[in-house]
Amino acid sequence: MDRQKLKWRSRRGLRELDLLFRNFIQKYWDQLTREEFEIYAQVVGLEDQPLFDYIFKNVRLGNDEVEAFIDQYIKSYLN
Do residues 55 and 71 make contact, with C-beta atoms less than 8 angstroms apart? Predict the structure, then answer.
């Protein structure tokens, strides 16, 4: 997926997620590898509610690779 389209798809309906994704893009966007962009494309393809539940309630998504990416890059803003 094109990086600009992926950035656009990062906009979320839930404000809490939107803020986390915005911070992620500002800090990590230019540093990601191609493989990490592919994983991120999976992350932004998820619905908001399962993402919210994983990030804030630790409800598993069922995809270890995606969960590891979220833990490393997205959840880092919660601490």
Answer: no
Q: Which of 33, 34, 32, 29 is nearest to 7 (CA)?
A: 29
Query: What is the longest distance spanned by two Cα atoms in the chain?
Result: 31
pLDDT tens string 1-50: 688 898 988 999 999 999 999 999 999 999 999 999 999 999 999 999 99
Residue 50's nearest CA partner among 8, 14, 79, 21 is 14
Strand (E) positions, the chain?
none
Q: List the structure tokens of 58.
A: 């630790």
Q: How many CB atoms lie within 10 A of CB 40?
A: 27
Is 76:49 a contact under the CB 8 Å cutoff?
no
Using the structure block, give the residue that is written with the tokens 């997926």. 1
How far is 34 from 60, CA to CA, in rounded Å? Answer: 25
